[in-house]
Amino acid sequence: MTSVAMKYLKLGESGFDQSLSDMLSWESVSNADMQKLVADIIHHVRTEGDQALIEYSAKFDSYPVDSMAALTVSAEDIEAAFNRLDEAKQDALKVAAERVEKYHSKQLSESWQYTDELGVVLGQKVTAMDKVGIYVPGGVAPLASSVIMNAMPAKVAGVKDIVMATPAPNGEVSDFVLAAAYVSGVTECYLLGGAQAIAALAYGTQTVPSVDKIVGPGNAFVATAKAQVFGKVGIDMIAGPSEILVVCDGKTNPDWIAMDLFSQAEHSHDAQAILISQDAEFLAQVKASIEKLLPTMERADTILESLNNRGLMIEVAQLEQAIELINTIAPEHLELSIDEPESWLDGIRHAGAIFMGRHSSEALGDYCAGPNHVLPTSGTARFFSPLGVYDFQKRSSLIGASAQAANTLGPVVSVLARGELLTAHAQSAEYRIND
Amino acid sequence: MTSVAMKYLKLGESGFDQSLSDMLSWESVSNADMQKLVADIIHHVRTEGDQALIEYSAKFDSYPVDSMAALTVSAEDIEAAFNRLDEAKQDALKVAAERVEKYHSKQLSESWQYTDELGVVLGQKVTAMDKVGIYVPGGVAPLASSVIMNAMPAKVAGVKDIVMATPAPNGEVSDFVLAAAYVSGVTECYLLGGAQAIAALAYGTQTVPSVDKIVGPGNAFVATAKAQVFGKVGIDMIAGPSEILVVCDGKTNPDWIAMDLFSQAEHSHDAQAILISQDAEFLAQVKASIEKLLPTMERADTILESLNNRGLMIEVAQLEQAIELINTIAPEHLELSIDEPESWLDGIRHAGAIFMGRHSSEALGDYCAGPNHVLPTSGTARFFSPLGVYDFQKRSSLIGASAQAANTLGPVVSVLARGELLTAHAQSAEYRIND
């Protein structure tokens, strides 16, 4: 193992802004070959339906099957998977699901309506989507928490059909993942992965229903497919590698901070962990903790690669200078490991999730604090929000004009529509004047 | 002029579902040449900045300029454009802006926070985006209402910088459009069109600021560019041609209904106008009104092409059967030209805007009722919402765990994180147990 060589910057030093910008820079590669490959897979699923899914199961998941029955997980199978888990896991999943459900229930929007001074009834009717798709990656880690975080907001919104797709390499699917589906209201499950899963959910096949929106993380095939079906269905945000920004006043155990940085870095070689402090001595202590703890970690190679590629320590003169750095970085996860973190909230404009105080580890939010762990990455907290109930509700405007109101507003419509050269619009309102 | 030949279907007749599906079907063409052309334009603007914009102004807008000054509209120029309008237009713009502002103010989300039974502070902090871009097409019609509908929700959200881009073919820009910017809180304006305008707003140049989100309608270049910069910035929905679905019990003046259908059809040859009634005689009367009124219309050719391509009358046995048709069609605009339209609301799950009663013409909503006229098209009301204040606010999750709460929840995190093979996550929570 090579040694840890995290980048170290001092705010105010010459070239700081450019160095920070270089460190933060991340852009997904839009590969024309990948686009074409994914477009072909989508086309094949649209035209051949189930048969295409059966072919791809053998080809991409090394799981040859005769029929869609083998790619369909029944409600009984999902429940059975839960029952096979040990009690500690069952309980932990239930606690997480309940806490996530409770937090998200606060996000529910309600319809509203009022009558204005002209007698126009105006309002907004809020309804749940009918049917949504949740994609859950296969691969190394069985992402049970991902199932809960993607499905539960849909359940809370009142979505009737929550359809999960997850690949079963060699026919194997994790009980832990299915059990998470059990506690979070998933209503159907198919063993499908990659672009073919996204295509099936977007367009439907003989067996798989088409859904209104598809959410959930995935590899480049999945992300590309989601972008390609956007518009036919809704999708959640476009996610980059995960990141954490820890701001610490130097009074937290440096081992804790090192581990918090690791908990981000262990995700992938391009995950990003940043630490800001006004205390140079403390930064050195955290570096020592990193070097001490790293060899003990199961994912030490990934953590080392991530820290050396994209890890960053920033020394500031005054801790409060971190606030503008936070807004520049717009981090996915922000840990305020300081006294009185709430006093910072007013100044923080852009962050996916804010963890306040030394005991609020990011991991708590990843699993069971309550808020969602699907968060905007790579600075997109400037305009994206955490996944939430609002992602599964939609709104219809309500407009009810009395004869009197149509009479009063008709001339306004007439002037504006004629100004835009849209005379049918104008006449349609003019007919209702003096009626 | 050829004669009107709108399609006519009877619910329940053999082949109805397929015929309806065929009529509704619309898919944007994703053209590889267009994708490449737009990608090149974006790249050129990213690398050359202002200079690229100056080149494109000459090339695409027949407007050769020496510097960005000629492509920049000052606040004084915007105000002057408003002052040059006649009073009727000034007043109409002000009434529309005020009504739109008032309705949208009801959409503002507030931050919230609570402490749960374990002593965990949980919440959602809602903030406005810093800077957004509004694209306003040039072309035949000066879309003043489009400026109001796109800018006002951003203004109400509290966005500080609202940057408008609109092309100036031959250097000409409409006073009406600039005046609309004046009444709706636009803070900067550049005379830029097409993919180059979107690229400038997404990435910034020496003169044009980069924004967080870009909204507004546009041609295929604009739509393609918006899709390509999505992720770097937020964008609003992907819009298809405009459509209206009118449901009428036969008791509204058939001329009114014909004109309501025209007001959609006059937008473009692929706009869609659909009428449902249980009264075959009334449908025939509307057809007669269409034939009578069409020759008097300024955009008769476009209306005829639209009605003959995509126009549709549907006869149902019972008027209430229209409700399930509405949900299948998920129309952008829905006119309920019936008695007691509010009694239908519970059954209607998918529609962009619902116009209730005979006096509520769609045109009223297009200009000044208050709700937004940027609405989900082509059935996407199943998952998209009208443009609103919520499109310009974003959320940050808040999590503050006490030592006690970290102690209680730590074991849950530990079990779940270890189940997912993420041991740094687990340890980061375990450190905080029994502290």
From TrEMBL, chains A, B:
**CDD domains of this UniProt entry?**
Histidinol_dh (cd06572)
* Function according to Swiss-Prot or TrEMBL: Catalyzes the sequential NAD-dependent oxidations of L-histidinol to L-histidinaldehyde and then to L-histidine.
Q: Which InterPro entries match?
A: Ald_DH/histidinol_DH, Histidinol_DH_CS, Histidinol_DH_monofunct, Hstdl_DH
Molecular-function annotations in GO: histidinol dehydrogenase activity; NAD binding; zinc ion binding
Q: What is this protein called?
A: Histidinol dehydrogenase
Q: EC number(s) in its UniProt entry? A: 1.1.1.23
Positions with a binding annotation for substrate = 242, 264, 267, 333, 366, 420, 425
Q: Where does Zn(2+) bind?
A: 264, 267, 366, 425
> Does Ubl conjugation show up as a keyword for this record?
no
Report the pathway entry: Amino-acid biosynthesis; L-histidine biosynthesis; L-histidine from 5-phospho-alpha-D-ribose 1-diphosphate: step 9/9
Binding note for cofactor: Binds 1 zinc ion per subunit.
**What cofactor does its activity depend on?**
Zn(2+)
Family, per the entry? Answer: Belongs to the histidinol dehydrogenase family.
Species of provenance: Reinekea thalattae
Residues that hold NAD(+) according to the record: 135, 196, 219
